[in-house]
């Protein structure tokens, strides 16, 4: 007698602390939804106890995935970052249950914001291939970023927000942005965009695959995660008060119209400069020099079927 075909395996790795504990609170409903809607599949739910643990669990699931299996992460951009790094170049399709505070990558590729709808998208099986940014520096010789790699004022605010939220939890991004601005002056950059060298001072240099960071701030309103290209946003030196006025305009995308904001599309970007460091998908990724290369179609991800004509429904 032939071996019975194994059921599809959906491995869900959860950071229960994401989104200020929302992830843990919503987990029972999400797990029940997946099991009810995928009766012929095996749904495994694993709770991670740390970043390192989550990375190991997600990577193991992705490496052992057979075609048709899925690796699901429940949390914010940090968990999505681990998921996309584990799934890129494997047989696993990534599913994101966006239960974090930011969820910028999920939003940028077309994962529904609403948790029951995100579960629904996974169960329906609508998938899409999206690009990633391949990042290489001394700390991370080979890493993918799904949303935005930032290196300037934005990176400093991001790092400070991560540090402080660990201790106090509720201090707002706006307060930290103001505090960082008081001491901030333009940074000296050497940027090579598809081979063309620019030596300049800048407030912000961000390399984007999807267009948002910081929980919905549109650093690159035009970015398309399926165009095979990177989008680079440079904010030239401006006064502190101008930068302060520009920041809220990122929520509408209007900031990109300011004359100090330059945007480029490229396949490869190299960034160097004294004292600069990288934040990717909200996580600290070491110092520059860094090379960022477009990785077209590197990831298969579950999305809202209605979101994109590029989505294909298979089940
Ligand atoms: N069990 C855990 N699994 C994974 N990460 C954890 C865990 N406990 C704490 N962390 C920390 O949580 C952060 C990742 O959280 P995640 O991105 O999932 O949610 P968030 O921070 O609420 O949302 P966002 O990143 O979208 O703002 C990491 O910085 C990591 O160090």
Automatic annotation (TrEMBL):
One of its GO terms (cellular component) is plasma membrane. GO terms for biological process: phospholipid biosynthetic process. SUPFAM superfamilies: NAD kinase/diacylglycerol kinase-like. This is Diacylglycerol kinase family lipid kinase. The keyword Iron-sulfur does not apply. Keywords: ATP-binding, Kinase, Lipid biosynthesis, Lipid metabolism, Magnesium, Metal-binding, Nucleotide-binding, Phospholipid biosynthesis, Phospholipid metabolism, Transferase. Its cofactor is Mg(2+). Residues 5-139 form the DAGKc domain. PANTHER family: LIPID KINASE YEGS, SPHINGOSINE KINASE. It holds the Pfam family DAGK_cat. PROSITE patterns: DAGK. It comes from the Bacteria. InterPro entries: ATP-NAD_kinase_N, Diacylglycerol/lipid_kinase, Diacylglycerol_kinase_cat_dom, Lipid_Phosphate_FormReg, NAD/diacylglycerol_kinase_sf, YegS/DAGK_C. One of its GO terms (molecular function) is metal ion binding. The keyword Lyase does not apply. Belongs to the diacylglycerol/lipid kinase family.
